[in-house]
UniProtKB/TrEMBL annotation:
Matching Pfam families: MarR_2
Molecular function terms from GO: DNA binding; DNA-binding transcription factor activity
HTH marR-type domain segment(s): 13-147
Protein name per its UniProtKB record: MarR family transcriptional regulator
InterPro entries cross-referenced by the UniProt entry: HTH_MarR-typ, Tscrpt_reg_MarR-type_CS, WH-like_DNA-bd_sf, WH_DNA-bd_sf
Keywords, alphabetical: DNA-binding, Transcription, Transcription regulation
Signal sequence range: none
Provenance organism: Heyndrickxia coagulans
Top-rank taxon, per record: Bacteria
């Protein structure tokens, strides 16, 4: 499909895309800084925080939640196991399945990083300047946009 750059919908789509990209880059930069403050990569901190929120996830579940390949997740998991932050545990329901869980050290670090999460602090700062109705509209519209994008597929 060729885009007609004179079409107002194309211009709107470009503007939305550029704004979402700018917000994503800004928050990713803050998240990376937060991870580095704890001596971790952004991916490693994401794994820890996901396991804090969803204990005993499998590698596949982590990959799906973080939208990363299983091989990428596997490298991150191996490093975190070697650092003593997570451990592998055989599932009691299915012995072929390995569950991942935070060690005490990993849980403490994840909680500490969440407590001092720079991206969340920045977002809270920004939304505190907005009316609640606008925040709810933003959430609803972004979810709707994501749903439509998922319908489009690829």
């Amino acid at each position: 499909m060729d885009l007609n750059y004179d079409d107002p919908k194309v211009k709107q789509a470009m503007e939305i895309y550029q704004l979402l990209t700018a917000i994503g880059k800004f928050t990713a930069k803050l998240a990376k800084k937060n991870a580095e403050n704890f001596g971790l990569s952004l991916q490693q901190l994401s794994i820890l925080n996901t396991l804090l929120a969803f204990p005993e996830s499998t590698q596949q579940e982590l990959a799906e939640r973080l939208v990363l390949s299983k091989s990428t997740i596997s490298v991150g998991i191996d490093k975190l196991v070697n650092m003593g932050l997570i451990e592998r545990k055989l599932s009691t329901e299915d012995r072929r399945e390995v569950k991942l869980q935070l060690t005490l050290k990993g849980e403490e670090l994840a909680k500490k990083s969440s407590k001092n999460a720079i991206p969340y602090q920045a977002m809270i700062y920004a939304i505190e300047k907005m009316p609640e109705e606008d925040i709810q509209s933003l959430l609803r519209i972004q979810q709707e946009l994501l749903n439509h994008l998922n319908e489009y597929g690829y």
